[in-house]
């Protein structure tokens, strides 16, 4: 990892203090963490025994699920499946969960059990569950599919089996060839490779430790098997923010960050997308994942708004919430050194066609003024002048220069059609007609304009 000269000394000191405090108060043998800003590693720190190497492996637990989700989205983008497909369409021998959609499995809304059948799968070898049917207990279905969020580790075992079926290779091999190798993640593996941290259980009432078992979880691997490093997870976090055409583009990654299920916490501060945990932290929306396995906790958070990634690991079963630590490190940098806005630049000349420029300005939906702006890439924004109400960005529809597709909010997926010619130019947005003057009598406003026009009472 590069040196941390890009952060101010007081910021580096604050980050180091947080890591040291987490290690000492959490009584973990070691804690290690790192921060990536705008695609560049800018800091890493450690506290405890043998933790200074950013290339030292720690077990990342359920962060593995995000890697599994990336593989499923790659299959979707390649046209091999649709997220609305039932699991049984592609995995007809799935013992349970066949009626759930792939989107429901990705977002933990398939209604499946939270854990595999006993004994505790995280501390026992996968040989105890050699087939998919061996993963589930007597009551695998806990809720109707699609009704609510219920975290399911076995659900991701099914997704891993789906990847293996459609790619014709073991999950680990597919992950290495399609994700890890393109992203340069040479130190992320299914089993540990030296140097790696040993996982420990710390006695709750004494400063005594005992080693946790090092397990190969077999069929459950897509739910939590991977080992990685601060450097490698920093690369993965950068990918989650920016995309990489060799793996997934930025549009698909943005789709993964959209909440797919209603939050279960009373404060509505957390949710789940497609393989990504989502959290609202002091006004910032974070996307990433927490992880734990016996002997380890891990956290990876990204903040698209601040263009930041934070990673944290600890090698103790409990005591250090590495997910909370990663979020705190991210906030520390964002608060002390807010991201600079991207410099304004004129749009390419090809995007500034006269008819498009003429389209900009004020449009009225009924009596409500909206401002239409033209951005680079022929992207449009349409929003109420007063800043409230419904607004959205719109991207051009391929092959049709007069139509755009909504990207967010109420108008996400809706079509904006511009009719700039004629006596009454107008915009048609999902049947809403926008005109240059309020209720233009010459425009095809639904219900028409009163022939008496505007006047007093």
Automatic annotation (TrEMBL):
Q: Beta-lactamase-related domain: which residues?
A: 16-334
**Residue stretches making up the DUF7586 domain:** 353-436
Output the Pfam families linked to this UniProt entry. Answer: Beta-lactamase, DUF7586
**Top-rank lineage group of the source organism:** Bacteria
Q: Which PANTHER family match?
A: D-ALANYL-D-ALANINE CARBOXYPEPTIDASE, D-ALANYL-D-ALANINE-CARBOXYPEPTIDASE/ENDOPEPTIDASE AMPH
How is this protein named in the record?
Beta-lactamase
Q: Which organism is it from?
A: Streptomyces xiamenensis
């Amino acid at each position: 990892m590069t040196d941390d000269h890009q952060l101010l000394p007081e910021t580096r000191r604050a980050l180091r203090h947080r890591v040291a405090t987490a290690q000492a108060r959490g009584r973990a043998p070691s804690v290690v963490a790192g921060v990536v800003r705008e695609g560049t590693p800018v800091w890493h720190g450690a506290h405890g025994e043998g933790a200074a190497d950013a290339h030292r492996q720690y077990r990342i637990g359920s962060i593995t699920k995000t890697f599994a989700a990336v593989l499923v989205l790659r299959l979707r983008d390649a046209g091999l499946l649709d997220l609305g497909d039932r699991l049984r369409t592609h995995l007809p021998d799935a013992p349970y969960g066949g009626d759930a959609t792939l989107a429901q499995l990705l977002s933990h809304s398939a209604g499946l059990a939270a854990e595999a059948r006993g004994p505790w799968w995280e501390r026992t070898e996968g040989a105890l569950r050699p087939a998919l049917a061996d993963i589930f207990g007597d009551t695998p279905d806990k809720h109707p599919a699609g009704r609510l969020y219920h975290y399911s580790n076995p659900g991701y075992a099914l997704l891993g089996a789906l990847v293996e079926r459609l790619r014709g290779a073991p999950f680990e091999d597919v992950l290495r060839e399609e994700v890890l190798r393109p992203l340069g993640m040479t130190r992320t593996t299914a089993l540990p490779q030296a140097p790696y941290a040993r996982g420990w259980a710390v006695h709750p009432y004494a400063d005594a430790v005992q080693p946790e078992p090092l397990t190969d979880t077999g069929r459950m691997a897509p739910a939590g098997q991977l080992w990685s490093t601060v450097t490698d997870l920093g690369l993965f976090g950068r990918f989650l923010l920016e995309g990489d055409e060799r793996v997934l583009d930025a549009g698909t990654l943005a789709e993964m960050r959209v909440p797919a299920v209603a939050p279960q916490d009373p404060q509505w501060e957390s949710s789940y997308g497609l393989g990504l945990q989502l959290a609202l932290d002091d006004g910032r929306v974070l996307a990433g994942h927490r992880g734990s396995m016996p002997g380890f906790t891990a956290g990876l958070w990204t903040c698209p708004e601040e263009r930041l990634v934070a990673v944290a690991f600890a090698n103790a079963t409990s005591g250090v919430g590495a997910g909370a630590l990663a979020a705190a490190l991210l906030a520390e940098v964002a608060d002390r050194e807010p991201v600079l806005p991207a410099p304004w630049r004129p749009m390419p000349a090809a995007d500034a066609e006269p008819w498009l420029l003429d389209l900009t300005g004020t449009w009225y939906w009924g009596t409500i003024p909206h401002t239409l702006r033209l951005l680079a890439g022929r992207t449009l924004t349409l929003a109420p002048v007063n800043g409230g109400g419904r607004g959205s960005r719109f991207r051009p529809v391929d092959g049709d220069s007069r139509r755009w597709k909504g990207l967010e909010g109420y108008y996400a997926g809706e079509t904006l059609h511009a009719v700039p010619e004629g006596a009454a130019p107008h915009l048609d947005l999902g049947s809403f007609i926008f005109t240059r003057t309020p209720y233009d009598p010459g425009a095809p406003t639904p219900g028409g304009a009163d022939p008496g026009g505007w006047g007093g009472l």
